[in-house]
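mind reviewing this stuff:

——
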Amino acid sequence: MRRIDFMYVAIGIIYLIVGMVLGIVMGTRQDFQLAPVHAHINLVGFVSNCVFGLVHRVWPALRTGMIANVQFWVFVIGTPLFVAGIATSILGGTVFIAVIGAILVLIGAILFFVMLLRAGFAPESA
């Protein structure tokens, strides 16, 4: 994916806005039942996506190969499943969606680590 850095940061900003809106709604209602959802939207959604995007920006070698695309889609699909699953479980539903999302997010993080190791041990070009 050519603009993976931009895509990660743009997705992160969307999560930032959603997380802030949820925080404002919880604050005005004085109902903080979904505080864990708010925290995960901000940390996994905003921070992780933006960090991935910024690392891709300063380390272009990470963008090469199919693993970058796979990692992107696994993480991007896993994040909303994880967050929605947390909300569902808090509201009395099953934790199944949260578990699937968490596993996808974890796989995305592991793939990112693999990409980092591969790029870090690759010979530098002149």
Notes: The CA atoms of residues 92 and 102 lie 18 Å apart. The radius of gyration is 16 Å. The mean pLDDT is 93.
